[in-house]
From TrEMBL:
Enzyme Commission numbers on file: 1.5.1.3
Designated name of the protein: dihydrofolate reductase
Associated pathway: Cofactor biosynthesis; tetrahydrofolate biosynthesis; 5,6,7,8-tetrahydrofolate from 7,8-dihydrofolate: step 1/1
GO molecular function, one term: NADP binding
Family: Belongs to the dihydrofolate reductase family.
Organism: Limosilactobacillus equigenerosi DSM 18793 = JCM 14505
InterPro entries xrefs: DHFR, DHFR-like_dom_sf, DHFR_CS, DHFR_dom
Native organism taxonomy: Bacteria, Bacillati, Bacillota, Bacilli, Lactobacillales
Keywords: NADP, One-carbon metabolism, Oxidoreductase
One Gene Ontology biological process: folic acid metabolic process
Entries under SUPFAM superfamilies matching the protein: Dihydrofolate reductase-like (SSF53597)
PANTHER family membership: DIHYDROFOLATE REDUCTASE
Length: 160
């Protein structure tokens, strides 16, 4: 799950380059009751454990936060994700490096497209729309900017 501007920008100097309450509310609705997985930079941008969600943070840095599961390598991350999936849905919330690392394991994407451009130093790779199908899209305008909330499903999902 992520929000991007028209250039694929998702972050600037460790923060979101924009503030749209509707996007934050959408994020909360989609992630509530799930395990959320993030990298260290995303953790620092958020700055706290989010209520109603189990947080997993992949970081090389020492980090101890009550109620937050911290992992320090990919093998540990994959193990924790597999364990959490037995308990509740898992959402990958960023950043770009973590999305790239876990993209093969994801079957559903929740993307907000902000139809404007902002300064950014972190970008998402362009979505390969040949591998995904858009199953839901809603739009709204906030602060004069159009936001598109999109749900995509992977086309090659294999049923167990």
């Amino acid at each position: 799950m992520w929000a991007e501007d028209l250039t694929g920008g998702i972050g600037y100097q460790g923060q979101l380059p924009w503030h749209f309450p509707a996007d934050l509310a959408h994020f909360k609705t989609v992630t509530m009751g799930k395990t959320i997985v993030m990298g260290g930079r995303t953790w620092r941008a958020i700055g706290r454990a989010l209520p109603g969600r189990t947080s997993v943070v992949l970081t090389r840095q020492p980090l101890t936060v009550p109620g937050v599961m911290v992992v320090h390598d990919e093998a540990q991350l994959h193990q924790v994700i597999a364990e959490r999936r037995q308990l509740e849905p898992v959402a990958i919330i960023g950043g770009a490096t973590l999305f790239a690392l876990l993209q093969a394991q994801v079957d559903v994407l929740e993307r907000t497209v902000i139809e404007a451009t902002y300064p950014s130093d972190t970008k998402m790779p362009k979505l390969d729309e040949q591998a995904w199908t858009l199953v839901n899209q809603t739009t709204l305008i906030e602060h004069g900017v159009k936001l598109r909330f999109e749900t995509w499903h992977r086309l090659d999902v294999k049923e167990n």
